[in-house]
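<tokenise_the_fold>
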Amino acid sequence: MSIADLAPHRYPLLWRWIIERVWRVEHAFERAHADGRAENDTRIRIFAVLALFAFGFVIMSAGAVWSATVAHAGRGGGTAVGVPERADLVDREGRLLAVNLIHYSLSLDIKDVWSRRETRKALLAALPQLTPSQIDRALGAKKRAFLIGGLTPAEKARVHDLGLPGIIFEPEERRVYPLGPLAAHLIGYTEKGGASLAGAERALQDDILKAGAAGKPVALSIDVRVQAALEEEMAAAAEEYHPNGAVGIITNIHTGEIIAMASWPDFDPNAQQRATPDQKLNRAAASVFEMGSTFKAFTVAIGLDTRVATIDSTYDARQPLKMGYRTIHDYHGTNRILTLREVFNHSSNIGTALLAHAIGNAQLARYFEAFGLTRRAKVELIESARPLTPKKWDDDDIASVSFGHGINVSPLTLVQAMGAILNGGQMIPLTIRKMPDGYRPQGKRVVSETTALSMLQIMRDNVVAGTGRKADAPGLRVGGKTGTGEKWDPETRRYSDYKQVGSFAAVFPADGPIEADRYFVLILMDEPKGGIRTGGWVAAPAVGRTIDRIAPFLGVPRQMTPPPGAPTLIAARATLVAAAPKSGL
């Protein structure tokens, strides 16, 4: 507020009052002279000066109060603006993942600038991120002009210390991700205005705003130590094999909690506007792939659960199998009769297709539905993609789907379905929320505990003596299955011989009682380059290294030799097999 704001045409009553008081003082001077009392004249003049100063002080005080409280209301001058009150995001151990922090926007009022040249030179030196054209545009404006936003307190102090006239700062809240790219696809990000765009930021929007209003953090299911180890090993494998993209996921199979989830290439959510769509794509949730031989775990589990097969059932893999319009071959050809265990260890397409045929089309389709393989993964992330499934479940489709061809699912869908085999047979939804200690949800039963124990044993055997040997980690009893899916080439209208998806799906520890703590690890390479592109070659070693690093964080002890008298999976299965009913699917 200035004297100009008190113009007569705006405040006529105020000016009339001032004029009346000035005339009264003047008449008092005249009477003092007329009466010959000079001392009264001096007193009146002193009083008048004091009154004038007092009046000026009142006006300036009122103007300052007006400017501070009213004049800039609605223009962001008095309070931080930019982001709604969002709660901090923390990992399962309370480590900070996302937080709102005060930043500053910088504007320039050309009316107060003394030297354009000095202002331009000083700002370019203090803020390297500013371009000369930005400053020139602001200096050429006829009124106050915005220069840059998102200045940190240190950057603001650096500019403030220059003492440049015409510089205006306004506080604004910004969402900050202290760990940069770490877990970026799971945490997600917000735009400048505060709208949540991806990941947990969007999926848990209501929870985050509610917790923010209460001043409490929101805990996610991930552990940043596990996340960092997964990302480093996945990135190392990507650097070696140069895939188009890569995925890594680690879950607690009993609770469904996602302990780590990564998509490569990654990006920094603090500068998400500079990332490409490919970098921001969450391949773990939003992309679907033909997963190849990892699907053999489902077919074998269904065969055991329906009692169509036992571990020692045999299948003739000596000749390629003609089924429907296609001929099925084995990549790891053995040209002999295989037991079911060997079908799994050698990843035999022929043996798996014969098992699927014995199970029957309708039965296999019902189990695939119960495993959740025909729909989006049950998880909070809105990026979760719908699978591409066969239009009809005929002999040809069943044969293909039994070993992971002809069906495209997201990595999260695969992980959720694997959990239903390995946790004792229950379908447990995935979650990015931290669950309370001791939490053990009950889900719909898909396979029996007997089947689950048998699959743990089979997967462990595959790492000890089958295609998964490169995934072993000393003392951690890793089990798993390789996967190599050929990608469809729309140009040639056939499956490509060189565009493949290589993956490894692992569980650890694979021994112990069914209720023991157990974790699932998946690493996938999309179109790896090199001479050998199979899952056992490009993904299994990265899985083994990851498990070796994360076991201490998850409290999984190394056990180099079984303790005396320890029950084995085979013994545990023997106690259940006689009485265990089928799942009924």
The chain has three domains: 3-71, 89-218, 227-577. The CA atoms of residues 282 and 518 lie 25 Å apart.
